[in-house]
Design goal:
The complex is a heterodimer of chains A (about 400) and B (about 300).
Chain A (H helix, E strand, L loop, with lengths): L5 E2 L10 H7 L15 H21 L6 E4 L2 H15 L5 E5 L4 H11 L4 E5 L9 H7 L4 E7 L11 H11 L2 E5 L18 E5 L10 E5 L25 H39 L3 E3 L10 E6 L4 H10 L2 E2 L1 E2 L12 H5 L4 H4 L2 E5 L6 H21 L8 H10 L5
Parallel strand pairs in A: 1-11, 3-4, 3-5, 5-6, 6-7
Antiparallel strand pairs in A: 2-8, 7-8, 9-10, 10-13, 12-13
Chain B lengths: L5 H8 L15 E10 L4 E10 L4 E10 L2 H14 L4 H5 L3 H7 L8 H19 L14 E3 L4 E2 H11 L4 H8 L9 H16 L4 H5 L1 H7 L4 H22 L2 E9 L2 E8 H4 L3 H16 L5 E4 L6
Parallel strand pairs in B: 7-8
Antiparallel strand pairs in B: 1-2, 2-3, 4-5, 6-7
Helix pairs in contact in B: 1-2, 2-5, 4-5, 6-8, 11-13
The chains are: A alpha/beta (about 400), B alpha+beta (about 300).
Cofactor (chain B): Fe cation; [2Fe-2S] cluster
Protein name (chain B): Nitrogen fixation protein NifU
GO molecular function, one term (chain B): 2 iron, 2 sulfur cluster binding
């Protein structure tokens, strides 16, 4: 991809902040000691790891001892779920949602084959949960409730603390995959009901391959990765020190910019969204308009297909993402948009634009300038111009509501 | 990101053949339309052909597609391949030729080329007044093959009707699994469930099956032979005939059933499997679990 690309796919990954690159570089070359070593050369690296832990803790309103460094979001989710189950072997029930990331969903599905029962909470057309369904699902046998803070595809934010209060009443542990939310929503673990929380570095301008798991003090934990005694035995393996330093710096910058950057992203996002909706007929926003990440918009452009939109955008050096089957590398349409019950005409033509603090007015203008033409070109090729085409109606009827 | 050839990208960015053909008022000219695809997969194609009735020549072709990059490029390729040819010539165009014209397609996108070939077939069948088979129940089940939008109901039906035993056969019959192939394991599971269902001693399938009901009562030798003959004629022979073979009942002696395998079945290297899977298990299921089927060598008669 050209370096001048307009990058609006920040929920997939983010550019590493130059200040973060600068912070981590010495830990590849000058300060390459092992943080567990007794000598001063390793000790100074150990100090850098501690500082990073404090920086991540500060972003979450947590304590330094509650932070475990991981290889990223997937490991954090896996470790939290497995730890919660190992710590309560008598309980065999898990509650999650239909719209989780595969790092949670696939673990739950595997656990089902190992004798656990899993409740997958449904979502409504806005991608929002029904708390009554959650309450009805909680039993004394529920070991863990694992629910994402904000959805990666639509940006829909779940009422985490309201969920947490219900979870606490039931005596289950509460894990939150906050990979998309950290740095975009203020967090304070001191007043939160969350027991465990996953975050990932590359969603907040740190490199790929580093993340963290918040573990509330006092919550029993069984490590997934066993070896040396690093990180108080909760995650063995010599720390990825440059990554850890980068994550610490990223946390510091996220905290510093949180308020002003998210306000700016929201303003740009809203302008992008409103202008597209107003200028292009037959499109709609997917997700909860009232409870949404400030940087994300997911718009369904009816009657055309997402991959074709993305490739036209790509020709103009614009990077976005699609909820359509064809762009994701698999042929399965987005499980999130399907769970929301969107008709296929919308979900196949859904495009996600996700912004970051580097996004500029000019970039949004460039998208606004090209998008109507792309949609018009593709609609000219489409056999479906409206919802009254018998062929389309028949197919919508036949596939809606099928599968998860 | 998919790895598309330059040809695919060129046709996608610069489509030349998109659009509709209005019904013609010119004498001797007819417009034929074929529609295929699945909204579940995100691919649908409507192909329009302008046909000269005397020569059956395709004077012009146009398409409309709700589809991804490769669906658009495949539609362009198809039109380029068939314009100017006769309907019979066009019917010979395969999806492989469409993919070859594009310099290849990613494996998981091969269904786009199949869709082009199917739309062409649909248009020509429409022109010739040949009605495609319609099965009302096909749309009700859970979606198994997302590439072709095929439900488990349809897959189960084709397995039952044709006694299919492998996922490859299912692909050949309904194309399910012929796109990305990610549902092949599910198709294997469906085959297994249908097999167990048909072998189960109780349940709906049994209630519907008069042959099995009869099998629950002790049969006289004549009844037994008549039932064996009936099962062979109704359930076994159609499958073998479809594969170019056949079977004839030669003799029944107690629980020993002697048959003559004919045609491709007689010379087929898997004829033992045919005997055991297609014939013996079916007769055991329908007539008596003690039956043993043997083939009689024609040369020994």
């Amino acid at each position: 991809m050209h370096k001048d690309c307009i990058y609006l796919d920040n929920n997939a990954t983010t550019k590493v902040d130059p200040a973060i690159v600068e912070a981590m570089l010495p830990y590849f070359s000058d300060y390459y000691g092992n943080p567990s070593s007794m000598h001063t050369f390793g000790g100074q690296v150990g100090k850098a790891v501690r500082l990073a832990r404090e920086q991540v803790a500060a972003l979450l309103g947590a304590e330094e001892s509650e932070i475990i460094f991981t290889s990223g979001g997937t490991e954090g989710d896996n470790a939290a779920i497995r730890a919660a189950l190992l710590a309560q072997p008598q309980k065999r029930h898990i509650i999650t949602t239909q719209v989780e990331h595969p790092a949670v969903l696939n673990v739950c599905q595997q656990l089902e084959t190992q004798g656990y029962s899993v409740t997958y909470l449904s979502v409504n057309r806005q991608g929002q949960l029904d708390l009554n369904e959650l309450e009805a699902s909680l039993t004394g046998n529920t070991a863990l409730v694992t629910i994402m803070y904000a959805n990666n595809e639509t940006g829909t934010v779940f009422p985490i603390e309201q969920i947490g209060l219900r979870v606490k009443e039931s005596g289950a542990l509460f894990h939150v995959d906050a990979v998309q939310a950290v740095g975009k929503i203020p967090m304070n673990m001191k007043t939160s009901t969350i027991d465990m929380l996953t975050l990932s570095g590359h969603k907040m301008h740190a490199p790929k391959g580093i993340g963290a798991l918040y573990l509330r003090r006092g919550v029993r934990f069984r490590p997934m990765i066993i070896g040396g005694g690093q990180q108080r035995g909760r995650r063995a393996g010599t720390e990825n020190v440059p990554g850890v330093v980068a994550l610490g710096k990223a946390a510091e910058l996220e905290l510093l910019h949180l308020e002003e950057a998210t306000a700016r992203e929201k303003q740009l996002r809203d302008r992008l969204e409103q202008t597209l909706i107003n200028t292009i007929p037959n499109c709609e926003v997917n997700g909860d308009p009232a409870n949404r990440l400030p940087n994300t918009t997911n718009i369904g452009f009816k009657y055309i297909e997402g991959e074709a939109i993305l490739l036209h955008l790509n020709k103009h050096n614009i990077c976005a993402s699609s909820g359509s089957a064809c762009s994701s590398g698999s042929l399965e349409p987005s499980h999130v948009l399907r769970a929301m019950g969107l008709p296929y005409t919308i979900l196949h033509g859904s495009i996600r634009f996700s912004l970051c603090r580097y996004t500029t007015e000019a970039e949004i203008d460039a998208v606004l300038a090209i998008m109507p033409d792309i949609v018009e070109r593709l609609r000219a090729l489409s056999p479906f111009k409206n919802d009254n085409v018998g062929w389309l109606q028949q197919q919508e009827k036949s596939v809606l509501g099928v599968g998860r | 990101m998919w790895d598309y050839t330059d040809k695919v990208m060129d046709l996608f960015y610069n489509p030349k053949n998109q659009g509709e053909l209005e019904d013609s008022t010119e004498p001797g000219i007819k417009i034929a339309v074929g529609e295929v695809g699945s909204i579940a997969c995100g691919d649908a194609l409507r192909l329009h052909l302008k046909v000269e009735e005397t020569t059956e020549k395709i004077l012009e072709a146009r398409y409309q597609t709700f589809g991804c990059t490769s669906a658009i490029a495949s539609s362009e390729a198809l039109v380029d391949l068939i314009q100017g040819s006769t309907l019979d010539e066009a019917l010979k165009v395969t999806n492989k030729e469409i993919a070859d014209y594009l310099g290849g397609l990613p494996q998981a996108k091969m269904h786009c080329s199949v869709m082009g070939q199917e739309a062409l077939e649909a248009a020509i069948y429409n022109y010739r007044g040949i009605a495609p088979e319609v099965h009302e129940d096909d749309d009700e089940g859970a979606l198994v093959c997302t590439c072709f939008g095929i439900s488990d109901t349809k897959i189960k039906r084709v397995i039952r009707e044709n006694n299919l035993t492998t996922a490859e056969e299912v692909t050949n019959y309904v194309k399910a699994g012929g796109g990305c192939g990610s549902c092949l394991a599910t198709i294997d599971d469906i085959i297994e469930s249908v097999r167990q269902e048909s072998a189960a001693p109780s349940g709906n399938s049994l209630k519907k099956n008069t042959a099995s009901q009869q099998a629950e009562k002790p049969l006289t030798p004549v009844q037994k032979i008549a039932l064996i003959q009936k099962v062979l004629d109704e359930e076994v022979r159609p499958v073998l005939i479809a594969d170019g073979g056949d079977v004839e009942l030669y003799d029944v002696d107690g629980d020993s059933v002697k048959v003559l395998l004919q045609g491709a079945c007689g010379s087929c290297s898997s004829s033992t499997a045919t005997l055991k899977i297609a014939i013996e298990s079916r007769l055991r299921d329908r007539v008596s679990k003690d039956l043993v089927v043997e083939a009689v060598e024609p040369s020994l008669l």
